[in-house]
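testing teh design pipeline on a random one, pls ignore if ur not involved
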């Protein structure tokens, strides 16, 4: 198994794919999967409310969506015969969901969890012995084909089964394989990371307003600048330090701004935030276990 795989080198996922729970993260994975070419007719999703089911059917024509409030067996029906089952309910409900679907799972169905902080051991204890299990940490840019996903395999998961799990995500972003003990760090950088970029755009817009720009204009400039910089970073082998230096002329305006950031120890502030996010993920794991 290679260290990572990318959307451009992976075919659409094959077999039937089930999404149990379809909140913001599981819908991001679902949207990326469909955008990558997997037919909607090969996918089943479950939600609680009929209204949400109808919303998803309208948004993704051909998708089968079952509502638990109408059919208490919706989750079991969705996983029956599935090649991959993606569990996207809240962390507190993951082990209960594992127990409830266990009788309906096929021996070869690869169970993939997108729930933060719930350990492989906790899920394996609630699943049939030997059930292939992969824990993931995706992020919301999967919706636009630029996601980042960390995958960790449970005991006994074959390379082929791990590839099947990766194929669910690979059409919409970069997939990396890491040991489970590194998933909290992955969560701190890429899972929470989109919020950091949005936070930066907010701060830039506020700074523009403070400098006298119209608020809407400042927001437009901040939004387009962060989005454009992201596209430059998305190029193969892009180096953020090199890109920054290319914009930073000696004794120019950008150099003065970077000096102010350094004086405020901005890199240390960002590192402290990432450490806090990783520590909170570890806390949640302990609370759930």
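output:
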């Amino acid at each position: 198994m290679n260290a990572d795989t990318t959307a451009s080198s992976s075919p659409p996922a094959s077999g039937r794919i089930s999404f149990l729970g379809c909140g913001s993260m599981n819908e991001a994975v679902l949207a990326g999967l469909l955008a990558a070419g997997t037919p909607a007719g090969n996918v089943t999703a479950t939600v609680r409310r009929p209204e949400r089911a109808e919303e998803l059917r309208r948004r993704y024509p051909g998708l089968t969506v079952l509502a638990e409030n109408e059919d208490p067996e919706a989750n079991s029906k969705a996983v029956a015969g599935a090649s991959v089952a993606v569990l996207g309910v809240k962390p507190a409900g993951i082990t209960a969901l594992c127990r409830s679907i266990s009788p309906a799972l096929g021996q070869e169905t690869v169970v993939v969890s997108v729930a933060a902080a719930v350990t492989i051991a906790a899920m394996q204890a609630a699943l049939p012995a030997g059930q292939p299990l992969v824990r993931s940490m995706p992020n919301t840019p999967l919706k636009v084909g630029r996601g980042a996903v960390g995958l960790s395999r449970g005991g006994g998961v074959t390379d082929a089964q791990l590839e099947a799990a990766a194929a669910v995500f690979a059409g919409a972003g970069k997939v990396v394989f890491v040991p489970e003990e590194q998933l909290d760090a992955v969560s701190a950088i890429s899972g929470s990371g989109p919020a950091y970029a949005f936070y930066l755009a907010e701060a830039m817009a506020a700074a523009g307003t403070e400098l006298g720009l119209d608020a809407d204009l400042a927001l437009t400039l901040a939004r387009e600048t962060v989005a454009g910089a992201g596209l430059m970073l998305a190029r193969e082998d892009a180096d953020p330090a090199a890109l920054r230096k290319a914009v930073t002329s000696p004794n120019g305006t950008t150099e003065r701004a970077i000096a102010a950031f350094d004086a405020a120890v901005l890199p240390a502030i960002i590192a402290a935030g990432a450490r806090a996010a990783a520590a909170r993920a570890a806390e949640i794991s302990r609370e759930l276990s």
